[in-house]
């Protein structure tokens, strides 16, 4: 089941690294990411996309079958999604995932409608479904189904003004398995 757009995204702590449950909740409650994949030549392919989380922690991305994302996944199912916080202080969470392409028309339309709802901030009415289905056919749309297996967090530490008394400090983060338990 596709999760609805969260009313309030998770606010990232600014004094410590995110706990495993916070990392998962960060992903569930945000909507945009930089989608990255390996290319044969040059650097990684990257694009900003809206994604749809599901109730079983998959992340779904709509794309056209002819685009690089879809073509590369057929050859190499490893992707990364750099989930973006849209609020200041800006934070992000890198999500590493195994990906497959799905072309089920019902799923593709469901994801396209959910993406449109995230873009506009409100769900599309059911009356839009035939139009979205026609767009699916015309554009050759598919869904990238991403199954997260690990995350890497970036703490939101920022200089808010040049004369602040507290020193700007940072700490190291690390890769954490997606299903990691929280410390006791």
From TrEMBL:
UniProt GO molecular function: coenzyme F420 binding; oxidoreductase activity, acting on the CH-CH group of donors
GO CC terms: cytosol
Keywords: Oxidoreductase
Protein name: Pyridoxamine 5'-phosphate oxidase
Domain Pyridoxamine 5'-phosphate oxidase N-terminal: 22-133
Xref: Pfam families: PNPOx_N
SUPFAM superfamilies assigned to the protein according to its UniProt record, in alphabetical order: FMN-binding split barrel
